[in-house]
User: Fold these one by one.
Assistant:
Number 1:
Amino acid sequence: MISQQKIVERLRRLIPSGRMIVFSIPFIWLLLFFLMPFALVLKISFSNAVIAIPPYQPVFTYINDTITLVLNLGNYLFLASDSLYVEAYWGSIKIATMATILCLLIGYPMAYAMARAPLQLQLVLLLLIMLPSWTSFLIRVYAWMGILSNQGLLNNFLLWLGVIKEPLRIMNTNIAVIIGIVYAYLPFMILPLYANLTKMDMSLIEAASDLGSRKINTFWRITLPLSKGGIIAGSMLVFIPAVGEFVIPELLGGPNTLMIGKVLWEEFFNNRDWPVASALAVVMLGLLIIPIIFFHRAQAKELEKNG
Amino acid sequence: MARLRNVSFSTVMLVIGLLFLYIPMVILIIYSFNSSRLVTVWAGFSTRWYLELLRDQQLLSAVWMSLRIAFYSATMAVCIGTLAAFVMTRFSRFRGRTMLSSMITAPLVMPEVITGLSLLLLFVHMAQIIGWPADRGMVTIWIAHTTFCSAYVAVVVSSRLRELDMSIEEAALDLGATPFKTFFLITIPVITPALIAGWLLAFTLSLDDLVIASFVSGPGASTLPMVVFSSVRLGVSPKINALATLIILAVSLVAFIAWYMMRRAEEKRRKPLPDGE
């Protein structure tokens, strides 16, 4: 007996080391390739742009046994002083907010109808919602270029119907960008809402209607509050990436469309100003950190409900 | 009557929403067979854009590059994502748990421009300090894609692990199987469908990424989205429509097979067990 206990004891001591390996592989990978890079972005945002490879001055220098740390706040002051950047942040948040609200208004009834459909049909509907997001994002945005342009299909169709006399200018405006974001991100709104609504306890709704509550009343006072987790998760899945979106404003937006993802891209690729691009990323992350924490909490709560 | 009206509002929205999702794709497919270069004017049926697509050497090599990167990224992401999901669902409280779970959920929403820029700076610093990677290309894109795809795999796999009956794993451990053996003989076979789903999701995500790949790629390494983007930027082109049609066809085919297999598995589960099983 004693020897067996000893063996068990030894095995127990061995287990943490096995656990450590299992834990450390994903942990170290994500630490190295996800978290650490942000520290480097922060570091480079305090650097000076120079014409060199790589195009920035080192922040730490080590000469004659002394480490010098030069923090250049100029990039941040530059962002604050030029109204272009402030407007780009504001424009991104405005466009992302409008797109998120539209996604919610379209996506909620869709998810609701899916959750109430017969089980066999639910699987088919789920596949139909997800299928577009498995095809190319770029190509789905591209599809709208042909539809929205001045001689595009939408204008031709409306002219043919006689609703309008002159082609509408939609392409290269903020409206086109919002349509593009709603189109591209709608599945990401529907999926968490659907996951939440299918798990909802139907007996609560039945109880309400048994007690004489009207349908609308039941919806506002029971269904909607219970689906709060899904609404938050879905909205954040749309809002946060939409703020930093580059492809949609680049392809559907015009010269007046100021969005921060596009500005950052241009600073980086066209002006080759890595420090300013880094400062833009740091400020964007600062603006998004609260929504990201919201998302993380909602996600953790939804997952716990699963188990 | 009131009930009918209430039901039909959301159903009508579902139908409108599905039309909204699918009409642009149907238009893309129709105009890929247009013989005119103008995408908005119909000039007759033709398959010439498909032939031109097959002759485009730059595009074909980009397709090959993207497929290889997607294959390696999805495979690595399944390994890392599954380990992360296992740690999150099976390990009780431990140090670094909140940090790991934040590092798993954050990539799901992180704007691509930030991820791309930060990874590029990492690779530049690594090249300065340890001399690797000397030039950016396939390997750096692979690392970048693996990182954000693992997050998606972890979400898919952990939701499966959470609903799984843990008593089988506990029984195996009680009967003397090592945790290692239990993981490979019990856990892995049971979650295989989730692993396949995660792999396919990671594969499509990697195949689709433009922004992160543009940041971390070097000269000479162009993925399919990069080639498509540089063509689309100049305006609409029927060749891209033909490419879109092929992508939509391939994805629909895989989705149909997945649906068919899920249905068959469901039917099998419902049927009473036959003799001898």
Number 2:
Amino acid sequence: MSWHRRHLLTLEELSLVEIDQIHATAAAFKRTLSRSVKKVPALRGKTIVNLFLEPSTRTRMAFDMAAKRLSADVISLDAASSSTSKGETLRDTAENIQALQADMIVIRHAAAGSPLYLSRILDIPVINAGDGAHEHPTQGLLDTFTMKEHLGSLRGRKVVILGDILFSRVARSNIHALVKMGAAVTLVGPSTLVPHWFTELGVQVSHDLRGALADAEVVMLLRIQHERQATGHFPSLGEYTSMFGLNKTRASWLDPRAIIMHPGPINRGVEIDSDLADGERSVILEQVTNGIAVRMAVLYLCAGGQPENVMPTE
Amino acid sequence: MPNLWIKHARVIDPAAKRDAIGDVFVADGKIVAALSAVAKKRAKKIDARGLVACPGLVDIHVHFREPGQTHKETIGTGSRAAAAGGFTTVVCMPNTAPVADNAGTIQFIKDAAQRDAVIKVLPTGCITVGQKGQTLAPIGSLRRMGVVAITDDGDCVQSNELMRRACEYAKMFDLPLMDHCQDASLTQGAVMNEGAVSTRLGLRGWPHAAEDIIVARNVILSEYTGAHIHLQHISSKFSVGIIRRAKTRGVRITAEATPHHLAFTDEALAGYDPNFKMNPPLRTEADRRALIAGLRDGTLDCISTDHAPHTDYEKDKEFDYAPNGILGLETALAVSLDVLVRQNKFKLPFVVDLMTRRAAAVMRLPAGTLTAGAAADLCLFDPAEKWRYDAKTGFSKSSNSPWHGQTLTGRVKTTIVDGRVVFNAGKIVER
């Protein structure tokens, strides 16, 4: 099967075959990352602009790193250094980036749907690096990639996503990918942060932590996003931790081989005990590492590469 | 101005329960029962074979942006869009810049309407100073200047105490209050209906409960004070139920629905197109069906457009940042015919009624009928003609329409105001 997409906007619109193609391509790139010379020439001569209009550490660095490993030239812009702070519209900023002959644009934006909007304006590929509370497709891809490395096929696997689901783009992208891959997904958290409407995406919604964690093979924690919660969706961080924080006792309810995931940044002591975040079941840093290979795969494919041609030279 | 002899039309005049092939006569700007043989000979004849002739349409909810936002629309351009849509009377909202909370601004609007409009443009005034919801505007002075209602438009008065006083005070002049029903505390940052679709799209939701609470509040205050409150652009099924029950008790409330809430649901937002962004937002299929049922049984009194022009550069933004509102005047009739007559089997005269006599009755305007002696405000339309709506070349100054580029059925051919043809065959007839 060849790859046809130029943009990566959502996981909702990807087929299972496409997700598998990205994962296979990422696996091939991951092998190159353990070599002494980590660079491959796949995107030599191409320029990628990372337009990060919302703060990001991990995602931005991983996209940077991925582009450099592919030998692309990379320019990164944030909200403070771009003209959006002077009132320039997103359309104008993006058209200027295209006029500067960038070959691809990676966008992180606080407004849901803005990558789709750019994809309609621009002729160059647009990669969504997180849009508001909508999607974060590369995160969903790297999370499911990491799960597959540990569990093999995800069909029938019990995955719990725990925390602030309402405001989480990570949750939405993971839900779309996991449902397509056949996992049994349960969303858990306070009822104000896990509205029942999520069931329409093909997942279970629960507010019973014990029942949900029992025998789960993956638990993915989501950060309580203080900055998005102007209005109080729950009484306090302390109450959140006491009701839904993952601690040793609660982790003991999981399947013995279960992995603990978190897209970062972690609030230690809030959604997860510090010890668990660093413990042997935690794959949090593996997720970060896999983030490079997965983003290499996405950049490579959307730039016109084909999955079967990933034959990196030493 | 010549007398008119409109011949062979399907004449629909709901006020007179008339629906028959026949003629309409106009003399000196008024409808007359007949013309003398001599007058007939001299009259300008309009062959309306195959067309419906009905009272000029009445829209009690438009935004013409003048003064202050004339880059979006003016009273001149808005009135031309209205004429092209078959409207002969419209009621303007007061959220201009400055807002219409004083006699001077009302005078400005009336002067502009007198000078620039091709149809009848009627002003409303604010309920509170600056539309800020803190102190009452000079409602008596506004009334004296001729406002047909008071409203704080999109800035729904949040204080129940202030709304109660506004009701009591306006009742003294028997002046209707129009309310955009929205509890602001429930809709902070909201950009679309709250539900399964907003959850999927990651957009902040506007729960219908925020409308229902204020609809209920207004029912209570109307009943308590005896004031007439008109509930604007109802979007929620639950609100329709509140209004239905209140009307059975005889509470003095009226309500409207817009063509867009009748035609679309929140599923239309899947592509994040700001031309589907408005306030109140598009809701679910169950809500849409309830609005249609509400029009059918009289719970909702009329159709109005909430014609809300914004320039391309204002609308062409990330969905979260685009302003609310869409155009409506040039498409309202065709969309209403499509949704109500073709899809929901409403009788054509009833839909005409919803857009003429009933709309006028809500604001107690002397419009919406073809009875002898009435102003000769008419709309002639072909209910079957298919046409492609191009918002870019339309008569509004803006083009923010979700129907842009679509083929619509039902086209206005001629619009007549006080016996003068103001729109004909796709063109405005300038004075």
Number 3:
Amino acid sequence: MNYLKEQTRKQFFGNCGVGLGTLALNQLLGTYSQAKHIPKIDPSNPMSSRKAPLKAKAKNVIYLFMAGAPSQLELFEHKPKLNELNGKAPPPSLLEGRRFAFLKGNEKLLGSTRKFQRHGQCGMTIGETMPHMSKIVDEVTWLRGMTTDVFNHGPAKLFMNTGFQAPGRPSMGSWVTYGLGSESSNLPGFVVLQSGPRGPRAGNSLWASGFLPTSFQGVPFRGKGDPILYLKSPEGMRRNRERKFYDTIRDLNKIRLEDVGDPEILTRINSYEMAYQMQSSAPELMDLSKESEKTMELYGAKKGEASFANNCILARRLIERGTRFVQLYHSNWDSHGGPGETLDKDFEKVCKDVDQASAALIFDLKQRGLLEDTLVVWGGEFGRTPMGESRKTTGRDHHIDAFTMWMAGAGVKKGYIHGKTDELGFGIIDGKVHVHDLHATILHLLGFDHEQLTYRFQGREFRLTDVHGNIVREILT
Amino acid sequence: MNFLRFLLFLLLTEGYLLGSDKILFNRDIRPILSDHCFSCHGPDKRARKADLRLDTYEGAIRDLGGYSAIVPGDPEKSELLLRTIHSDPEELMPPPKSKIPKLDSEKIRLLTQWIKEGAKYQRHWAFTPITDPKRNSKEHLIDHFISKRLKKEGMALSERADPYTLIRRLYLDLTGLLPSPEEVSAFVNDPSEKAYRNLVDDLLKSPHYGERWGRHWLDQARYADSHGYTSDSERQMWPYRDWVIDALNKDMSFDQFTIEQIAGDLLPDATKSQIAATAFHRNTLISQEGGSDPEQFRVEATMDRVNTTGAVWLGLSVGCAQCHDHKFDPISQREYYEMYAFFNSAEDKNNTGPTIPVIEGELINSPEKNEKNKANLMVMRDMKDPRETFLLARGDFTTPDKKTGQLNPSFISAITPDLEQKEGKRSRLDLAKWLVNPKNPLTSRVTVNRTWMRYFGKGIVETEEDFGTRGTLPSHPDLLESMSSYFIDSGWSMKKLHKLIVTSKTYTQSSKVSPQSLKADSGNYLLSRQSRIRLDAEIIRDAALSASGLLSRKIGGPGIRPPQPSGIYAFTQNKKKWNTTTGPDRYRRGMYIVFFRSAPYPLFGTFDVPDFQTTCTRRARSNTPLQALNISNDPAFMEFAQGLALRAIQTIPGEAETTLDERIRLAFKLALSRSPNDREFETLKNYAIEFAKDISAKGDGEDAKSLINEAIVKSAISLDQGAALVAVSRAILNTDNFITRE
């Protein structure tokens, strides 16, 4: 019997117990407000700070994106069984239905040569190449059961950032600033920083605003030269002259506004004033000379260098100055075994690039009281296979079925390990967290129902989690 | 139970008393059903609950076992209404757990009245045949409908814009360039209707018209000079760009324009130009990443061809039917793949083939051919043995639905139910002809609406990309009908359509916003004024080039690479080749700047040019601080400011002090096509004087030297005075007025 029939039958036979008392009259005559978490945006200042519709634990996000996909089997997942079966063919049952980027099907299992140790109260196992990260295990929620849908770098990065594997959707940072605006009036609300030998695959579509207004797109700050393109005035235009220049434009725009009455001119006047402010606030942000020696040491940062460590300090400085969403990309974690991608020297180098600063960021945010409302996310676009891939040396291919990420700070548990994989690291046994679930959880921490933060485009309500996503409640405080 | 009925009765009585206007299904009811009901009781049969569909009359009145969702004429017996007010969450519709908002009392009242009046359904307006509503033929077609509506609201069109504003508006809209001061003067001296019409005719004959409107078309064609995805290496598609410019300049009829781009290769005795036109659908992305399955990307490109065709010609988001039946519009998943079948036999497979060799000038009506610049243009060609097409479950290329069987190319039946499809094998040519069949109700409406949008800032149907049931209704339905008929009757002439629009009083009226009109119609839906529209990125450059006198008017050929700061590719996977263009080519229009999808020329990203991963039918128009920094500090714009200053110096010779006023006025006029008013002039003059004073007081001439160029140095003006004029020119180019079509 179908639903409607059954319900109606219940009603007709008086089973549903409806009476006048339960049917409130105001329900009939009143107006219901729309439940959607669609922000009301002031067109003259789209980035003005907005209050989250639900109770929020986090105010800001720092997302450390490990571009190229770090090997969870060298860093976080100690698998003695895999070491034991090194060189053997994987059980066919484990390969069924899985897809890989490069593997042909005859590859052998590859044990890890890395030494692992348990750390902290939570007893998280960390590989030897991350000595600093082993010190923050009790500050962090470990997600060992991450899974994604896509096994190529570009599409998988897009998927991790936008919830969709093709370009064109808004990135997480765009959704967040669309929802919350920014606390800063003289720096962008969503900033992207980058380090390592090359840019992440899929490029600017990773921080694009898609169909959301472009005010919400990520602004990439450059490590060298002007942090923002065209930030510096032309040579000869000194600061006092620039004040006059911006005043002149403001006066001209005001005269035009009085004449033609278009309120958009008011927005233009505001934009120009913020541009002038940014000319001093952005270099001030980038200038690490006021950071203490101790801080520089903590991060392993060197003044004047474009590095992951410097970017981590900048991320903290951005959050301090009110920026809502900071995303760092560091390349290259790809470890197929070919030149520049080996699991020994190249892998050690990239570990060294990020290990100390990732941990330092957590310590530093904590000691400054910023960790309470800042969420830090660390991870790549997928994981790496338990089988070896033969190139010049033996490396690992892309693995989408099980990998590790971590989160720390506002609203997530400390020293908590969520999820478990099988003894060879092929699949997840418990605590599976899909990319959409991660997104749902991050939005939840920021005070949004991921199903309600929507934007209407081409006849459809779009959201970061598409039509999926469940909040991972186990990891919440 | 009786209480419920009684309450319903109360509500109905109240609602009925409140009701006034007659209910129209398309205007009043469909949006309610679409927002609240169709996701479970709509066209998508797999998502359908309780075997109930409310998008058709038959479905809604169907006997569900002694009762029906809707009983025409009898709201009390209509289960649907009962469910909207039920207090039991298990019974209430939409179910609270669905998170679809509940119906408010006004919506319930409308539904009630509609059922009472017989629950009449209407076909969705956009799918009904185009009509030609009656009108006063002596009046301008557009003004007739716009004025009629304004009158109904007690409003009227604004007065005609002043001739300065009008000529700048017309130049920017039709050519994307600025009028010269002489052209402005001539029109100001004779701003008659006749002179205006002559101006319109001249501009529509200008070869720059094809560039201006070609750029709009290239947005829809998702044209770019690189393959996209992560490698994003360069490709040579510029001959297609030239084809578009040429076709528009020739005023190729829109039906022919369509047929050649969708299926030029399949025309009998196809010419080279017709084959080149099919590059339209070769603007899809190609993945060159190692380890990727070419079939996956071939399927994605094929889907993009379907989706682009749907968006550009039909104004429908057919892509929703990739994975499931469309939730709101009558497009089934099967129909999606039947349309997909038209494109599934294309030869290319995530690679560049097939191509045709083209030399510069060959596709553009140009006497100069340049053998040195050759390109292998990617075009469409069908395989001899076409691939079999299956429905792809969940849109996944690895899961073809063999059970449903092989699908043949076919059109979406709901759009043209009265049109019989040709028997036997249908080709892309049949698809193209179907798109522009006068009986196709969408193509003309969608095209006219989008053209309108470029002139007024938004379409008559505001959701120009969605003419489906979830789109907004036309603000002026009869106007859209009338113009759509006109367009077809004119032989699909795009130039005639432009002329119709720009010769209307609706177009030529002032864009000034009075407090009254802002209050009465803040969004300007009724058009009691023109709209002020921020210029597109390319046109900002073009306008600055025209003002500075640096503009190179060369049309077509390979793209250019003006200077750009280092580090643009810091964030891309591969560094791009960017050998800075020198000589006059450096000052060519923005549309010729080589476009890498992964890292476009900075001005473009800052001023809302999309990355052309997919079709773009409407650009965003943002207003950000980064835009301010771009025009203020980009060396290119400094160069334009220097050009503008130099032009003022050279046109008005003499002593710096005695000519200052005149030079400021001229620079202003060159950029804004009008003279400054007293306050504007005083503001700029004070700025110039103070600037010159400051720079001579503090500097040793070094600052001034870095602000002016060699030509200004040679012009015998003092360094400080020259620098002050550059500063003034820079300020003018940074006004809101300069980057706005008023």
Number 4:
Amino acid sequence: MHDAFTAAMEQWVREGIPANPRAWLISAGRFKGIDSIRRNARFQHAAATDQTDGDVHINPIDQLAAETIDPAEQIDNGVEDDELRLIFTCCHPALSPDARIALTLREVCGLTTEEIARAFLTTPTTIAQRIVRAKAKIREARIPYQVPSHSDLPDRLDGVLHVIYLVFNEGYSASEGESLTRADLSGEAIRLGRLLIELLPDRHASSPGGAEPEAIGLLALMLLQESRRAARATTNGDLILLEDQDRALWNREQISEGLEMVERALRSRRFGPYTVQSAIAAVHAEALSASATDWAQIVALYDLLLRMEPSPVIELNRAVALAMRDGPKSGLEIIDGILGRGDLHDYHLAHSARAELCRRLGRSDEARESYQRALALAKLEPERRFLERRLRELP
Amino acid sequence: MKYLFLVYGEERRIGAMTDDECMKYDHALRQGGKCLASEALQSIQTATTIRVRNGKVSITDGPFAETKEQLAGFYLVDAEDLSEAVEIAAKIPPAQVGSIEIRPIRELLSTKGEKRYI
């Protein structure tokens, strides 16, 4: 495989990254490193099932060779590393965030330009152009096709996780338009998350214990959020708040896998913000109803999250949890504090949370004002319908 | 006295020119011993910006000098790839307070496909 990489590097420096570097590498490896490949029937099997552009012959002599010669574990690692290289290259911080997403969906997930365009409510031309530009940059600026060095790995992994989470969120809650969820993208993100954990073996981890805890935490978070998909909207696409959801509709399989992942990440003691968010989702997943939720635990987790990653949005979420623990008044004070500082002024959820707490306190006029402000800022149709309904229901 | 010349222009208009003229002028300057170094740059789309704050290196896409940041110097380096370039750039002292824009060099090519002879 090494020869193939050398050849690939040379060719890519000259001509740029091919449309499907992984398939290209596998086929290049097939021709250039044919001897090494013969040593490993397992690899041939992987190539035969993975690749789309050619045929791989597994003849009895090759299989015999595979049994008699050293299993050449490193070739297997070579294929996995190749996937990892591809992911890290597509998610390189020197590419724009939009380009990273498009490139990852195209090259790692194998989505077509049309599919990506549809998912992001844009034209195939725009996506194609984004991908062409990103590839030109990879070529011209010589972004290396490699797994980052040990010291760079945590930061670069953060970048990859961020791309995966952006894809997930785009699928989970579209930023505009009619549809509330675009399941395909969330499914792709979960698939990517799994792939990443599979590909990040011990030797790439910053300490022993398998894949990075945050990669596991992110997968847990996505699974737990995804588990509520069937319950978060009515059949006509109206939004259902967490507290009103029919929890029997939550996907138990995803929940139990998610919970297991949360525990695995927490046990590592090296976890970060994704894991803490997944722990919050886990507390919800374990509760039989909104009122039976361990809100004290959720507030404590938000405190931890705020220390890791101070942000007004997390403060807002903590305020909502606090309102559930101590009553609406205490949550409202904090939200007013955030808005009073001038933060989140244009964030519709800050106003709708304020409206909700005012409504519970029977302060209808204030609630109306805040719902209206939220409505003026909300772009998603189901959210707008929800806010309109709330406005109508106010006394 | 040494002077640094910075060449500005709309990429669309500069891209429409052939390299021949540039190569000719460059050659003449070098013959006269006046030119110490000269290079053309790849498109702005290939730019990467490095900043170091509190010892942490941040890498972003694009040329993101803030309007209050002024050009203060330059390095012309030979690096294996963008990783090495970033590593070198991050050690430039002003990276801690300002930003380093990394631009890959573009090789001039005559219309006949000849490279520049230096």
